[in-house]
Amino acid sequence: MEYLRNVYDLLPPCRVPDTALGLLAEPLAFPAKAAVSFLYGHPSEVPYYGRSPAVYPSPIGNGSTSSRWATAYGHARAIVSQMTVDEKVNITHGWPGACVGNTGQVPRLGVPALCFADGPSGIRGQEFVSAFPAGIHVAATFDRHLMYRYGRALGDEYRGKGINVALGPVAGPLGRMARGGRNWEGLSNDPYLAGAGLGAITRGIQDAGIIATPKHWLLNEQEFRRRWSSMGDAISANVDDRALHELYVFPFMEALREGAAAIMCSYQRANHSYACQNSKLLNGILKTELGFEGFVVSDWDGQMSGVASANAGLDLVMPSAGFWGASLAQAVRNGSVSHGRISDMATRVLAAWYFLHQQTDFPPPAIYPSTHRHAPVDVQDDHASLIEEIGAAGTVLVKNVNGTLPLTKPRFLCVYGYGAPLKAGPWQNPDRYGGGYDVNFGWGTLNGTLVTGGGSGGSSPPYVVSPFQALQERVARDRGILRWDFYSDDPHAEYVNADACLVFINAYASEMFDRTSLEDAFSDRLVANVAAKCQNTIVVVHSAGIRTVDAWIDHPNVTAVVFGGLPGQESGHSLTSVLYGDVSPSGRLPYTVARNEADYGNLLNSTVSADYFPEDTFAEGLFIDYRAFYRDRVAPRFEFGFGLSYTTFGYAGLSAALADSLPPAEFPDAGVPVVQGGHPDLWATVAVVACAVTNTGAERAGSEVAQLYLGVPGSDQEGEEGDTPARQLRGFVRVGPLAPGETRQAVFELTRRDLSVWDVVAQQWRLRRGEYRLWVGASSRDLRLNGTLSILAA
Ligand code: BGC
């Protein structure tokens, strides 16, 4: 069964490489928890009680956010009021069925089983579906419009297959740990960029009539011991209230504001309370502070208790009855769970269904195992062209000397490295392209071109255009020649007539384990060996997250370097459109590439602990990724937001003004009720910043990603330590394409929330009084303009 994904269900332990053992998500098989406790005994959990605040009772959803939600709730209540307790219980847990998750049905009231499917970058395990770029690749476009179109196309495919609920997009993990195994499923470790993406993708999916499920709520920042096992309980992510809000909750707010009708709670513990029974996270932040109207679904087998999870705000358990089913019915009958709560659970599930109008004209599920003969249900549409466009827009050029790129009709190319062609045997499992954790467990690289990562977030491409295929197409068109070696780490590279040598390497990651390194010796040797012989060596790195490059980046023969991300099925076409200059690169790094892995400090690795109650304290607070590099004065190799173009851009004329003539109030208006996404005032535009961006090059059109960074009053400034990072991304616009000489305005609207900090005493977003510092530029360190904005007391 799909959800039995404990690695030990799939691989005998002896096959797991030692290097990976330390970072296994679930170190030993899953005997019943009670049996483990009985056999081995375990330390008392009582000392850990109360570390996460208790918030009860669970808020009853009421549809007050909008007339659309109100209508959905009206329909849902009318049906739920006719249901028996058993019927309510049946629709709040998973059942066996064709989909990754299937709810129960109530035929007498016309309530069908709902179909849930992975994943965030395409429908996994099905035929005639597309493989879109992964989340982290979409983030690298810094383009909200592309993010929306991505979500919409995904949603259309889900709908075409009759899937009610899409299990994505992802902003948890946010990407706190450089080596986190699932960072690539999400967007960026910057919450503003991640939020823009999560919101736009959610809107896109739901505009297609599909329930989006932003996940994993919350703090699922590492794979190692993400779940309980015979070693003990799952890792506890211990985080303070401010970092919780300003980093980890922040991106989900946008998705909620866009109407996300479901949220998936995560496996691990948060402040020592399991996320799917954490009343602070579910009843408190999600359902009270952020007014969530939809339903909370557990991560697969992530439920750890019956009554406790029901009362803490979990609404639906997957993929089976877990601790509910008949036990939940009994708990309702004996008063441990109220009738109001079980009705609320059922109402939320149905309200989401009505919110997306799935009660009318929704196609029946067309989900089949590969062994089932059936007519194709083709949902690909023209998504290949969008995939190619996003693939190119998220490609990041980080080095380009001597005008190496774009290539100008090269006649002779040498292509090296395991990352250029298709993997010889990518389909050991019909659900997985090129190695999920069950195929490729513990490897640092994929022996073939990498277009997606492993695990439930991987995609099932209809075909993959490899870089080698696309290069051959181009070279053949120009009646040129190629030489290649995809095997050796020291290829014969003495073709003195070649125009360039392209070297393809990759860095793999998957659900179920954290990465053991951000580099690997084989690939680094390969690049160095080619560069030693070929004066024009172009390196392409496809990576599921950060890949350090200092082993060879300064080699004089390495003339160009491209971070190709995880581009999906059109990989080769996206890449060649950039290499050949059909598109000028404008992708930007959605993370910091350090010079040395050690530069990430405590944020390099997951916490590896053998304690029965392992914990990971987020002592760095707000200071992750570029925020920490600034504070610690560590020079990165390539900073967050960095990426080169084939042309140059100038910035001029920064303006910054408050939207209103009266100074804004310090807090949102306490008299206005919260709606889904938080207090409505949080989304009001408080200030507008603008500047002109000009393509100052003479030859090529190109797009520029203009970025706005903000220093709030009280932040770190030269010589003065504050309580907030010196600069945080609070705006971006992909301007263009601009013709040579063309100028356009970049306009950044700053909402109340963008300017606020979370006040842990007031338990509210607070606008600090004083001077806000602003920088606009081409990356987090290439800051071209600066200014200030004063927000004074009324
Ligand atoms: C993953 C989820 C996924 C689910 C269903 C879990 O292991 O953490 O992200 O949606 O499985 O496949």
From TrEMBL:
It comes from Lasiosphaeria ovina. It is found in: Secreted. Residues 704-780 form the Fibronectin type III-like domain. Pathway: Glycan metabolism; cellulose degradation. SUPFAM superfamilies: (Trans)glycosidases, Beta-D-glucan exohydrolase, C-terminal domain. It comes from the Eukaryota. This is Beta-glucosidase cel3A. The lineage of its organism: Eukaryota, Fungi, Dikarya, Ascomycota, Pezizomycotina. InterPro entries: Cellulose_deg_GH3, Fn3-like, GH, Glyco_hydro_3_C, Glyco_hydro_3_C_sf, Glyco_hydro_3_N, Glyco_hydro_3_N_sf, Ig-like_fold.
